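Render this sequence as a predicted structure.
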Amino acid sequence: MSDLTPEQLKAAEFKDGICAVIAVPGSGKTKTMMERIGILVNKHGIAPENILGLTFTKNAAAEMKSRLVEVLGDRSERVHLSTIHSFCYYLLKREGFVFEIVSGKEQLILMKEVMKQLKIKDLTVGTVLREISLAKNNLIFVDEFKELFVGDPSMMKVAVIYERYDDLKFKKMLLDFDDLLIQSYVLLRDHEKIRGKYLETFSSVLIDEFQDTNPVQLEILKLLITENSADSSFWVCGDDHQSIYGFAGASVGNILNFKTMFPLSEQFILELNFRSTQKIVQACSNLANHFKRQIHKEFKTNNIKGDDVIVLESSNEMTEALALVREITDLVERKGYKYNEIAVLYRANFQSLYPEEAFLQNKIPFYIQGGSCFYKKREIKFLLFYLRVIQDPDCDEADEALLNILNAPVRYISNKSKAELKEFCDKKDIHLYQGLKETRFDTPFIRKNIREFINFMDPLIDAVDTFGPSELLKLLRNNLDYDRFIVDEDLPTIDDVIIENLNHLQLSAARYNDIKSFLEYTDTFEDSNISENKDGVSLMTIHKSKGLEFKIVFLIGLVDTLLPSAKGNIEEERRICFVAISRAMELLFLSYPLGYLNQPSKKSIFIDEILGNKEPAVE
């Protein structure tokens, strides 16, 4: 405890009642939380098994557990530290609920089954699952959902699906992750005796990243509080400036309104940033001045002054990527930084495309954090497989590609049928596409699907030299209804992310005159280890960067419509930008192209806010 700052120590030593610890980036809130648990056990005599610590990701929970070992040693295992979903699973199982967790893939299968039963074809599976998830996270049950959307035909269809989907899961004794929360909330709300048992068991509750809570999570947590008790505590920490999961149902109002919800609660503010230089801390403060609703915080650091924030202006997204190459090469070769001390952050997944290309061409090792390289993404690879077969069906590469696209979209060709096809072709010493024409499958339905596939592919193969790769990709997407297929096959996500990736694939392909040269280019990503080097530069979305820190951060694509996103809430977009710049420890680069997607682009308003060149609006 000796190395805690006075403000950290005050927060850690809070004993009974309710309090919120509001922490600026890099102020050691997780450390403070772990030290608090140590104080509860060692100073106040609270048994470790009476302490509940919750966070919102598996990685964060694992980090908390490893840190707590340093504080409590073997006794740390007796403290219940987990994600809130894991806690709800534990709660329901302990109370005798019999269920299995439905995986993401099983969710898709169940939802497709329901929509097929209801003959609903004008909604995507991903859209429906997302709407139902948002409803549950906001404690909107089926009946209320129907009332809310009377007069909206599309959402009323979702309501019917919602009801049927829940009924199907109930019959199969399945729960998805949203159900874990809903069922736990209902259990604690409706059974005072059960609630009382957990109130008695967990006299000290601690919540990390409180700004990420959604309404149902908040209600569960409130049911774990004994207000006005001299022998219990409810301690939360978070940062309203870093609430960036509104799209997933999180409500920044939960932390902003904490004092209103709990009038007798205390508040501690951790204002000393241990991570960043004075210049970067000032940049964070400048941006924070523009939030309309916030908990006011001073931004302080005892670190060195550091270098000014650097702004890079480029003509377009390709020259922006080349500017990254120049700066990173200089940082590594002249200034002695390591590649893995550098991160390139961006708002949307597809923005990694041009840095990936530039890094690969210039042999700069890189690593996509929490994802895959652009040309290795699932939605991209299927289309590249189609191009491979169309470009030359009589080669080994086309054989592999064909096996991948036979069920993209779904044609109900089993693995057994694929094996029979391969065996037939091996015997006749022919390639699979030719074998597909000659093999007679047992099932008439499959024979029909194969015939339709060949009738679709043959004209494209015959006319391959008349198509540019971008034109052919557009044709494939339209004629196969590919966008709908790939969105429906993916786990619940924002459909726009996948569609944007497909659009950028077409834009990338437009730079090549023929399919062969485009495929040769994409092969360089498949064959190279440069793109999977964990000692390389980290490329990631801003959301993936949350909780991480890097000596050097490049924030790219700072143009209107990207950051801030054209579809986003400006306050949340500003918080996303805040998270990005607060990852930087020593150097921060802000980059924007004057042109984007062959159109003139406008510099993001956030650049001048970060630099302190724009006065906050007065309301």
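Summary. The chain has four domains: 6-94+182-272, 103-172, 283-373+531-611, 376-513. The longest strand covers residues 584-593.
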